[in-house]
Amino acid sequence: MTPRVVHSSLHGRACRGKKGAMKSVAASTILGIGHYVPSKVVTNDDLAKLMSTSDEWIQQRTGIKERRYIEHSGIGASDLALPAVKMALEHAGLASEKDVDAIVFATLSPDHNFPGSGCFLGHKLGLPGVPALDVRNQCSGFLYGLSIADAWVRGGVYRHVLLVGAEVHSTGIELADRGRDVAVLFGDGAGAAIIGPATDPDQGLRSIKLHADGSGAKDLWLEAPASAYVPRLTKEMMDEGKHFPAMNGKQVFRWATEKMPEVSRAVLEEAKISAGDIDLFVPHQANLRINQLVCQKLGIPESKAVANIEKYGNTTAATIPLGLSEAWREGRCRRGSNVLMAAFGSGYTWGAAVLKL
């Protein structure tokens, strides 16, 4: 049955055959990748001036040395996404005004509660009428978005899907002793990828698997404001710090170090390749200790893994595209490289993907 397309025919952007029918493709791949981080560097010593912590304490527990914060008020997730998108389009040799058919925007820190940041980004890119979907799967958001983009491209619904992960955490964390354990972890940043048809039959997304388990939802969450409460936010909630994120670090660590290797093995098996065939491993950057243990369990040398958490902290939905973009520009991967991506985060949600660039 031919899929139905909304809007795309208006722009002639859908991947159509000679008679206007939708044209499916064998596989999707990353045609271009880009990233952006704000210029403001915040070191562990800077945070130590605001709360009871130290550079040694943070590095020992997380591997983080510094992170980036937006330079001033008024900068949202879609603003950070814009330069990352332009870099990705340039890398792919495409132009946003005629080559982007749909937007998938992964973030837990949207510009505003509604509408979605994808709509704001589409307007900034000058793309009226192009559909935009926000994905709220936190640290796993980029992989969830990749699954959507892959299905759209393979099904012939859209030819080029812009997939973004972008976060502004610095305006939503508690820079005081009470919020210390969470505040030291997060930074601002963005990554973007252009997903389109693979032209080489040997290239493309080989396997992707996604999971969720809400039993751990309150181990890493933001309680308020919430539609479950009337009113959604009160002075008492703010006094208790319920409008700041909270985390059960031990539980998150335990789940992450179990589920990331497990789902990684599953996609490797489905793709019919071994861990030894992986040229680059791009894990979500939540904690250096987590990723070191995941590498150990998978038998992947740390030299093949992206580890930029020391510079940026946890940028949530942006960590995987940001890491892949940097690695590509550093020459750590190229066309034909086998890339493994894995993430675990709030929800709980987790997933992994194997891609031959």
Can you characterise this structure?
This protein starts with 7 loop residues before the first helix and ends with a strand. The chain is an alpha/beta fold. Helix 4 (77-92) crosses helix 6 and helix 10 (249-271) runs parallel beside helix 11 (288-298). Helices cover 33% and strands 21% of the residues. It has helices at residues 8-11, 44-48, 55-62, 77-92, 96-99, 117-125, 141-154, 180-183, 235-239, 249-271, 288-298, 309-312, 319-329; strands at 28-36, 40-43, 66-69, 102-106, 132-135, 161-167, 189-197, 204-212, 220-221, 246-247, 280-283, 338-345, 349-356. The strands form four sheets. A five-stranded mixed sheet has the order 1-7-6-4-5, sandwiched between helices. A four-stranded mixed sheet has the order 8-13-12-11, with helices on both faces. It has a two-stranded antiparallel ribbon with strand order 2-3. Strand 12 (338-345) and strand 13 (349-356) form a beta hairpin.
Present the secondary structure layout:
Layout: H1 8-11, E1 28-36, E2 40-43, H2 44-48, H3 55-62, E3 66-69, H4 77-92, H5 96-99, E4 102-106, H6 117-125, E5 132-135, H7 141-154, E6 161-167, H8 180-183, E7 189-197, E8 204-212, E9 220-221, H9 235-239, E10 246-247, H10 249-271, E11 280-283, H11 288-298, H12 309-312, H13 319-329, E12 338-345, E13 349-356
Helix pairs in contact: 4-6, 10-11
